[in-house]
Design a protein that fits this description.
mainly beta; about 30% strand; four-stranded antiparallel sheet; about 450 residues
Length: about 450
Amino acid sequence: MHRFHVMKSSLLLAIWCALVAVGSGGCAGIPVCQLNSECQHGFYCLGGKCLRDCAEAEFDCLDGYVCNANGQCEGTGTSGMGGAGGTTKSVTSATTGGAGAGGATVSSSVAAGGATASSTTGTGGAPTKGLLDVCTTAAQCTLGHCEPMTVGGKSRCTTACTASAQCPRGTRCLNYGNGKYCLGDDVGRSCSGPSSCNASCLSVQGGPSYCTAPCASGADCPNGYGCNNDPGQSVCIRAEGYCTSASECTQACDPNPPLLIGGCTALCATAADCPQRAVPLTPWTCFGGYCLRPTDVIGTLEGGYSPTEYHCNGGQVANLCNDGLNTSFTSSTPPTPPAINCQSPPEQSVAGAADDSCVNSCRYGGGCAYGFNCVALGDLVTERIGVCMPSGAGEPGSACANNTQCVFGYCANNKCSRDCTVDGICPGGLQCKNGGAPAVEGQVFKRCE
């Protein structure tokens, strides 16, 4: 059972997740047909089976077929990208930000790390690995592509794409070589230039550079990041972390109450440009062109910050985490806050236990910053929320004692798992099964077993 602390109306509210017994799941059989007219509306007949318009070949089409540009399954021979690879193109944009803001420059890489995307050669045995399975060559993958999920990272089977909505959760559709492929989300990763990132490296005046990615709104970015809403150059902007001046932030520093410590923030036109917390937590707002934290948040320490710091707030001890949430990533019980005498000024910030860490809530669409995975482990009694769990090394199906030991940040029944609620994808030959109530984002929670 995992538990989390969140400030709400100046009261400390415990949030915990109870993982209940898994129900059996299954899919209805696919009807046999000879003519399109024998299939129900919205389906067509292919290879003796009724299929609907496809989005992802592995799930919507027969073996050996791909999903074409018209959204229909079609047979294919060998696949390849064609053209020369290994060329990296860098583009430097104008400085992001505004009045009183810290400057930042975006450098983009068309080919992540200057690499060439691989493709199926048609040689060797039949491919057996599906999406997100670890691979060494494209010939092992049913969709014909084996790529590093991040620059210098582990290679996994992936697919070509035109939009991130077609990609497995936690990945983005990005330019790579001479095409677009589903690659890992590395927003927030430290970088020294475009070759360090899947998409872009954002250089911050007075602060560390970090990888970023294109966005249309804050919902496309990890919680703790806003979208700068700059036509033609909209990218995810870090809006969490301690600051005393704008020069320490990508765009701006917010030193005002109700915050007890100054915090970086982002510029905005509407609240949609701001970081997005899990529903139903109180959202950020946009005021005077700046993203402002909700009133239940009094600190700015980023997700993963450890040990959590505490302060007196209205006579009560509260954490200073950017999302108001803290937990022990390895323990099943919340860390006990340190003793602070809130009746005896001056008030002071006090560090929590060594395993007490700030943790961000998350939405599946925005996901989590680099090194973390959005897993629906937060339980608000009537609904689940996603929380950003750190990534380990264990592949799905391998033994684990806690979430931190698993590559997708989730250990269930002492086996590494993956939250498959949104996409149904389970690497390692596991199956996506009902994980039990409550629901998350209006969907039945599912996990790989």
